[in-house]
Amino acid sequence: MAFSEDGSWTSEVIPSAYTVENFITIFTDPKSLQPILNSVQMSLIATVGCVVIGVLIAYAVRRLNFRGRALLDMAVMISWALPGTVVAINLISAFSTGSTFSLGQALIGTFWIIPLAYFVRFLPMVFRSSSAALAVVDPTLEEAARNLGASWWRAFRTITLRLMLPGVIVGALLAFVHGVGEFVASVLIYTSSTVPISVAINNRMYSFELGTAAAYGMLQIVLIFVVMWFSSRLENGGRQAEQWTN
User: pTM of this prediction?
Assistant: First the structure.
């Protein structure tokens, strides 16, 4: 379908006309290229936020002893259990006017509301992968560094974070690729200038531009394939390193 001409495939069993213009269009036409750039940019921003906050929360839950650890764990994971429409509607209610959390600015209708939605939805992925990676890191390694005079930040950065890095990267890649393909929340909060790929596919389908919509879909499939392949390589490398250590 990605190689069929828009509007040409109607009642036939197979497309009646083929073209590569669909792929050329989505990469050369500024209007068609914008959804790709939007999705990549917004997903990257959300992924960076997920990594920073997810790693810190994972460290707090796994390493620190304080009341409410289980509650913090549940609070992070609850957004994974909620439908994307619920997350989007709550963001609309929370940020339709200025608030302390948005520095007095209304975020609805701006670029930043979609990365925020992706951050809320996919933070559990990075948190869980980071927490699992941290669970296999012996805390005595960090304690030994502290006893030798290293500060907490240096011990965390040079030992703990490096050992848990493969798990963090895997979670970040999954969050990124989910963000690129996210539709349920995006369709409620996007604007004409922040259309992501998933919404562009939906709009093209309704416009009967099936070839271009399928070309967007093929681009997502290739991206997912690359990310999953890279994640698999990281996981295999982590297992080999663990076996070598043992």
Answer: 0.85
